[in-house]
Structures are given as C-alpha cells and as structure tokens.
Amino acid sequence: MWHTPHPQNFSRRFLGFRPTPAALFHGESLGRFHSHSSQAFSTCRCNASEEATWAAPEDGDEKIVLVCGKTGVGKSSLINALTGTTSAEIGALEVGTRAIASHPAPEREIELVDTPGFYDVEGRTPEGVLKEMAGVLEEYHSVVYCQPASDRRMRLEDQQSIEVLVTALGAAATTRIIIALTFGNEVPSEETLAIKIAQTRALFSDAQARCIAEGLWDERVEGEEEPVPYTETPPVLEAVVCGIAGDGAGWEDELCSTLRHVSTGRAPVPLAIKWASLRKMGMMDVEPRAPPPPMELVNEFIEAMTGTFSQAGADGVSRRCRVASPVAIDGMPSGFGSSFCCITEFEGAADSIEEGCTAALLRGSAVSKVVMVMPAGEASVMRVDNGSVPRRRQAKSYQELVSGKWKVKLGDLKSGLGGGDQADTFVLTGSGFQSSSEMIRDRSVILFSNDVEVPTVLKRET
C-alpha cells in the first residue's frame, strides 16, 4: 500500500522528476502543524515492490468514484485528466459543476461522478446538493475529496464542506475517502504541500471525532434499547498530490492505484444520506431556532469562549496556551449592556496549563487582554478588544485568573471602554460561533490569519 511520501521526495515523486521509492511521514516531523498530528502521521510501512503504477483490477467491475470538494478546486480538471477527455466542463468565467454527471474511464475500470460544490457560486445549499446526489446515485466504491494545494490558507468553507461530507456519508465512508491535493504543480515548496495535507487530514479527523462524540455513528441493534457505541479509530486518509494532465509526474496512475486499493474486493457502499445526523448538527436548511434574547446570547458566547486551550509545539513539549475567563471591571457604569472576558495567552513547557500559566504570569511573559462582548444582531455578538492589562495589574496565578473574583480597573485598560481598534462579529451557527478570523466550537478554537498559511487549532483542555 502506498502512503504519502516524506517531504523530501515530493518533487521527485509527484512534480515531474523521476519517481523514486516513497519515504515515510513521521508524526514528530509535522507535530507543530496540528494537535492531531500524532494520529494523522502515524508511521506506515511500504516496500519497493509496491510500485505506483496502474495495476489491472482483479474483479473486472467498474468502480464508482464520487469526486467531491468546493467549487473551483479542480474537480472537473482532475476528471478530464483521468478520462483523457474534456467531458467534464471547465469554464474560465463560470466556475463550478452545475449538475451531477458521470464520466466513465473504461481503461482504468472506474466511473467518475462529478458533483457540485456544497458552497458554490450559484448559492446551492449542502442539503440541495445532497438531494441531487441521492436522486441519481444508489451506491459508490470510493470518494475523492479535492483540496487545492495552491490556496494560501484553509478557509471556513473548507471545514464546512468536510464536515457536511463526513456527516452525510457516515461511518461507512471512513475507509473509502482519498484526498486529492489539486494544483500541486503550482506549489514548488515541498513543506507547503506537506502542510496542506496535514491541514486537510486534520479537518477530516476533527469532523470524524465530532460525529463519534455526538453518537452519530453509534449502531442501533434490534432488541437493544441503547445503541452500541462506535469504538473504532478512523484510519489516516490516503493523500495524493495531483498536477496537470500529462505532466509526466505519474500522479494519475498513483491516484487510480490508490482508488483501486480502497475498493477492490469490497462491496459498494449504499449512498444513504444521514439526514437525521445533518439535522442534529445544524447542517440543513431546517426551521431555525429562535435566537435567544440579546444578553442571553452574550452569556452563551462568554460560556463558549471560556476555558483553557492549548496547541502542542513542534518539539512536543512547549505549547501555545490560552486561558479565557470572565472578568469584572472596576469602575464600570451601571446598566451597561455588555460582558467582559479576559484572554491570557502564553508559551509554556510545564506539564499542566495551570503551572505554565502561573509561571508565565510571574515572569511577565503572559499577555492578558480584556474583551468586551455585546449584542450585535439577531443571532450575533460583537467582541471588542479593549487592550492589554498592564503587567502590574495582571493576575498573579492561574487560580486567581479563573476565580471569578479578579478585577481590572477601567482606567488601566489601554483602549478604555469600547475604544479598541479591533472588533469581530461572531455569528451563531450550528457549528458554534464564527467570525472571519476565529471559530469557537465545543472542543476547540480555530484561529485564522491572512499572514499565516496554517490555521492555529487550540484544543479545549477544560
């Protein structure tokens, strides 16, 4: 079985040079990219006899392959490269597949099914796309999820598309999904390709973990009152870096070989959309719940962002940490319709966040800032940065920080009351609270930045 090669072999293996035997990813080399990296880059084995060349299928049946992904990520281009035709329409001005279409590739013994993006330019909803798929398809053998290597950073719709796909297809698809990193020929940096694979695998891992945690994959057994919990560990997804048709890199054969590997000798999977799971996760156009009163929504947001979070560093010891806790403002005018929270961030190498936070506060390396949260709309809140707390006014320990008794004087805030130069509007969705730069979920906080390709994922500890 072929696995994604070590970064040093990317250029030779996938980008047009002479293919060489694949080296292996090791978890420790990419641990800095995501908190789930130890799982996502477990050591794998392969040998020189497993050449990345097209092998004729043993069972002779054409395998049905769903080609999924956002609009404009190269799904149709990939299909044309594998079929050797231009049957999948590609528009220079109008990006995106408009309808589900089948494209046979008889010489490769596969049938590729092009699907519209979940969040496309025509405004299709995920529910609409899934209904189209369920209306024309009964089963599939494997899924190719296209993710562009050339995108500078992961976006909110990347996460949403993967969450919808994983939730809709259910546990049966976990061993059938392959990541196709499209436009790999446009990315000369081997490290960037490795990062993009790590990011995509991590989003799938997060989506799968959420389904398991919510009990969506538990099995109902006849005669049993309670469902049987899902206890399996979803496998690490195969990933193939793809270029352009006929570039000599051999990615077409590598992708097809991987497709055959996950489907040969296995029965097709019925395309049974998990509508109940999608409704439970708030991913369908269902009747929206009435938004809570303004201050109740503010309190719900404060509760969501409160806690301790961390991300392991590259060495596996040091880590970036965040402690968010409600804070009282001494000198606050009465009747002010807002709440306050203190966000303290630091780098720590201690075994526990509590110890690391206290040590960072004492040596002055922790940064504490106060944010004001106020109603912004029917289902949204605004978080305004009121500036950092002077060192002399910071809490002296983790326990004091989270005690609920620590106060900050209004006059000590750099920006004053509501005078911050940074404000984010967070909208309440089925996945949590989302803004353009941050996503606050039940078990993590994801930070996005235009200056950094890799989103920062802070895992909830408490």
UniProtKB/TrEMBL annotation:
Sorted alphabetically, the keyword list is: Chloroplast, Hydrolase, Magnesium, Membrane, Metal-binding, Plastid, Plastid outer membrane, Protein transport, Transmembrane, Transmembrane helix, Transport
Cofactor section:
Mg(2+)
Q: What's the chief localization of this chain?
A: plastid
Q: Does the keyword Zinc apply?
A: no
Give the record's membrane topology: Single-pass membrane protein
Q: Name one Pfam family in it.
A: MMR_HSR1
Instruction: Give the G domain ranges.
Output: 65-164
Cellular localization per UniProt:
Plastid, Chloroplast outer membrane
Q: Name one GO biological process term.
A: protein transport
Carries keyword Transport?
A: yes
InterPro entries listed in its UniProt record: GIMA/IAN/Toc, GTP-bd, P-loop_NTPase
Extract one GO cellular component term from the record: chloroplast outer membrane
Molecular function (GO) terms for this protein are:
GTP binding; hydrolase activity; metal ion binding
Record protein name field: G domain-containing protein
